[in-house]
Amino acid sequence: MLPSLYALLHWLGYKDLMPRTSHPGSDPAAQERFKEVPARVALGSV
Fold first, then answer.
1. Cβ–Cβ under 8 Å, residues 34 and 42
2. Where is the Winged helix-turn helix domain (predicted)?
3. What is the reported pTM?
4. How far does CA 18 lie from the centroid of its chain?
5. Is 8 helix (H, G, I), strand (E, B) or coil?
6. Strand, helix or coil for residue 40
7. Can you give the pLDDT at residue 18?
């Protein structure tokens, strides 16, 4: 059953979806700074 479902999706034009490794506009330095902040401070509950 599953192979026929995949064949139908392929016939309809659906492609295998893969997540991007990173967003083109992401800032790795900002992500590292965010990781260093405790969760309570980051969420504004302090």
1. yes
2. 4-36
3. 0.37
4. 9
5. helix
6. helix
7. 74
Q: Which amino acid is at 13?
A: G
- Residues 32 and 45: their CA atoms lie apart, in Å, by 21
Amino acid at 11: W
Own/partner pairs for 26-29, CB < 8 Å, 24+ apart?
none
pLDDT of residue 44: 64
Percent of the chain with pLDDT over 90: 17
Amino acid occupying residue 30: A
Using CA atoms, how far apart are residues 34 and 22, in angstroms rounded to an integer? 16
What tens digit of pLDDT does each residue of 17-37 get? 777 788 889 999 998 988 887
Residue 22 has, within 13 A of its CA and on its CB side, a CA count of 6
